[in-house]
């Protein structure tokens, strides 16, 4: 299915849970093949529609920034696996560097890039599993709408979907016109 055909297609919670299982299977396959830390890239896409022109732009921007990071650091990337499904755009990278160093670089991108708040850059170590921001002493991600810790807003569903989507569009439009 091409990216344009998926635009505007609503997905269910069951679809998202199945996508999470497929992502875990891809991660295990890359661990088995390469034995390296993985960078899992997903997008912050609230609501039932996961693939839009905006989400494609946000993922393309993330991929470009990661390519720049890998060139700048010289970290070998023996595997790059983009995934385009109705449940969202994703990518997996096997990166030949220490997992904690990779997590630090990923968190810096999330925090410093104008679109970084729309990226979910998870680092998985073949031995330790996922590395959290808190394990590195980093502050939690902030809510797109109010700036409070995002976890609390997401769990309580503090902001209506249209408010979240408007905040995302505003951020993307500001980046495009800078």
From TrEMBL:
It holds the Pfam family CitX. This is citrate lyase holo-[acyl-carrier protein] synthase. It comes from Azospirillum melinis. It is an enzyme of class 2 (transferase). It catalyses: apo-[citrate lyase ACP] + 2'-(5''-triphospho-alpha-D-ribosyl)-3'-dephospho-CoA = holo-[citrate lyase ACP] + diphosphate. Its EC number is 2.7.7.61. GO terms for molecular function: holo-citrate lyase synthase activity; lyase activity. Keywords: Lyase, Nucleotidyltransferase, Transferase. It comes from the Bacteria.
């Amino acid at each position: 299915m091409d990216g344009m055909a998926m635009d505007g297609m609503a997905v269910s919670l069951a679809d998202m849970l199945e996508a999470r299982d497929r992502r875990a299977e891809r991660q295990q396959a890359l661990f088995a093949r390469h034995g390296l830390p993985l960078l899992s890239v997903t997008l912050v896409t609230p609501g039932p529609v996961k693939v839009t022109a905006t989400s494609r732009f946000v993922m393309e921007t993330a991929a470009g920034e990661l390519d720049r990071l890998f060139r700048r650091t010289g970290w070998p990337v023996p595997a790059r696996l983009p995934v385009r499904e109705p449940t969202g755009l994703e990518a997996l990278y096997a990166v030949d560097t220490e997992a904690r160093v990779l997590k630090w670089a990923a968190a810096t991108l999330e925090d410093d890039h104008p679109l970084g708040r729309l990226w979910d850059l998870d680092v998985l170590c073949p031995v330790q599993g996922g590395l959290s921001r808190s394990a590195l002493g980093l502050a939690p991600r902030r809510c797109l709408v109010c700036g409070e810790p995002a976890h609390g807003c997401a769990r309580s569903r503090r902001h209506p979907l249209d408010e979240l989507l408007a905040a995302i569009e505003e951020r993307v439009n500001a980046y495009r016109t800078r």
